[in-house]
């Protein structure tokens, strides 16, 4: 099912559950590009194409949230250009011998409000943060990612993970941030 550009953009900009559903629809709507590009980029394997696709989705999300997409073209055209550029980047890295890093789990979020998690994610400590998010536990990881990356409200997070109230989520988020800070300060820098 095709979704209108306006509906997808509105859902992604809304944050929370709507953003998650909008990204999922966007992902499914343009996934055909990975199949079609196998013929065009024959030296890229399936993993490279999927990494380029996921990176393009992340880039498009970021551009929609920051207002970089002005609507001068259809969303499909705009996204196809981003995906094509990501594939070309992979080809260049292949030719130069550089290793490509999968972008599936590397959030790209523009930090408009200073908060601990966003500052850490955007710094050179990304890999350390990723490891430490795993180490502090699944509940903390979900709360921090849901609130800081996906834009869920405390009420939505409470409903998603079964907490009794938004206040409980806020309190747990604070303790999770403390755990993350403490854990990062104890780890040697990579």
How many separate structural domains? 2
Poorly predicted parts: none
Shape: globular
Distance between the termini: 45 Å
Q: What structural category arises from helix and sheet content?
A: mainly alpha
| CATH class categorisation of the largest domain | Mainly Alpha
Number of beta strands: 0
What amount of the residues lies in strands?
under 5%
- Describe the biggest sheet? none
Radius of gyration: 18 Å
As for the CATH topology of the largest domain, it is: Rna Polymerase Sigma Factor, Chain: A
CATH architecture of the largest domain: Orthogonal Bundle
Instruction: Indicate the mean pLDDT.
Output: 80
Order of helices and strands: HHHHHHHHHH
> With helices defined by DSSP (H or I, 4 residues minimum), what is the helix count?
10
Describe how the helices and strands are arranged.
Blueprint: H1 5-14, H2 16-30, H3 32-40, H4 46-66, H5 75-96, H6 116-122, H7 126-135, H8 138-149, H9 154-161, H10 166-186
Report on this structure.
This protein is mainly alpha-helical and 190 residues long. The chain folds into 2 domains: 5-96, Rna Polymerase Sigma Factor, Chain: A (Orthogonal Bundle); 116-186, Arc Repressor Mutant, subunit A. The chain is built from 10 helices and no strands. It has helices spanning 5-14, 16-30, 32-40, 46-66, 75-96, 116-122, 126-135, 138-149, 154-161, 166-186. Helix 1 crosses helix 2 (16-30), helix 4 (46-66) packs across helix 5 (75-96) and helix 8 (138-149) crosses helix 10 (166-186). The longest helix is centred in the middle third of the chain and has 22 residues, at 75-96. The N and C termini lie far apart (45 Å). The model has no long low-confidence stretch (mean pLDDT 80).
């Amino acid at each position: 099912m095709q979704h209108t550009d306006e509906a997808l953009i509105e859902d992604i900009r809304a944050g929370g559950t709507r953003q998650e559903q909008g990204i999922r629809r966007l992902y499914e709507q343009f996934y055909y590009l990975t199949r079609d590009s196998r013929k065009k980029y024959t030296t890229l394997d399936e993993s490279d194409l999927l990494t380029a696709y996921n990176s393009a989705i992340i880039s498009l999300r970021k551009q929609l949230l920051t207002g970089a997409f002005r609507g001068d073209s259809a969303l499909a055209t705009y996204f196809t250009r981003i995906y094509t550029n990501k594939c070309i980047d992979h080809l260049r890295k292949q030719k130069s011998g550089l290793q490509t890093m999968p972008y599936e789990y590397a959030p790209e979020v523009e930090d408009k409000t200073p908060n601990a998690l966003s500052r850490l994610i955007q710094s050179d400590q990304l890999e350390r943060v990723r490891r430490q998010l795993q180490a502090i536990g699944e509940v903390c990881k979900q709360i921090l990612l849901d609130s800081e990356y996906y834009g869920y409200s405390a009420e939505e997070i409470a409903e998603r993970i079964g907490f009794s109230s938004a206040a409980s989520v806020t309190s747990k988020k604070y303790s999770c941030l403390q755990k993350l800070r403490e854990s990062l300060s104890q780890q040697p820098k990579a």
